[in-house]
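writing this on my phone so excuse typos. first protein, seq and then structure
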Amino acid sequence: MSWTTVCDLRMKSYTNNTSIDSTDFNNDATILGNLTTHPGYVSFHESDDQMEIMVKDDSLSRFVGLRLQALVKPSNFIRRYNIIEGWMSFAFFIESNGQLAGGIFDGQNWVGLDSGNTTVKANKWARVSFEYDGVS
């Protein structure tokens, strides 16, 4: 399978509370809530803070496989934290024990996996990824 990047939010360019997508698909993310923008990242402060990407075309609504990557630095693990979520499509998150988990919605059920004994650490940067190849 060949991969095409359809959204790349490098958090280096912000316009009117929007993080600009660096691909040609223009899947920009609107910053909602009390986020603080920094060069290269955003800080989430409250449970309703989020970045929302509106589905404008088929680039985010029709896919065979999916690769999600993020750089995270969780401050605590008092609840589940979504890293990236596509409404009723996919989710990649950190569980309350620091374990990474991800899932794909197949139209009827959520199918998922977790990182087992591997966890992210509080107050440490971690590059995390979730990949679904459309088959396994």
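second protein below, same order as before
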Amino acid sequence: MAQVAKYILGLGACLAVVSLITALARPDLGANAFPLSGLAAAVVFTAGSLGMVLISIPVPPVQRVSSVLLAMLIRMSLPLGVGFLLEYGPASARFQGIFGLIVVHYLAALLIETPLTVRMVNQQAQTQSSEPALENG
């Protein structure tokens, strides 16, 4: 579990850097650039963290693909849903431009998370294959 915490902290640090860069790259958002970019980073960080925690839960080899698919579903649907709700919802005037920021943060996090996810799944497979099989007795 300590490894997952390290991965989540690394994801948070990278998203903080991306948030700063995107806020500086969007002068058209004015004074809202930093809060909107921070909110986009928080949404993507929450979804990514939940996905990594789900993948880190040990499951039998048969269910490993289902675990990854569930994490992907959460990883994609949470930012998409929040982005649509904020961009086109009742308070859309305050959150104008956040959907694009969420997409940028999502793509950056995807670049970071994909190798980490593959590494976690491979380590689980190696750990489970090295454990002795219990015989029915």
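The two ends are 32 Å apart (CA to CA). thats all i got for now
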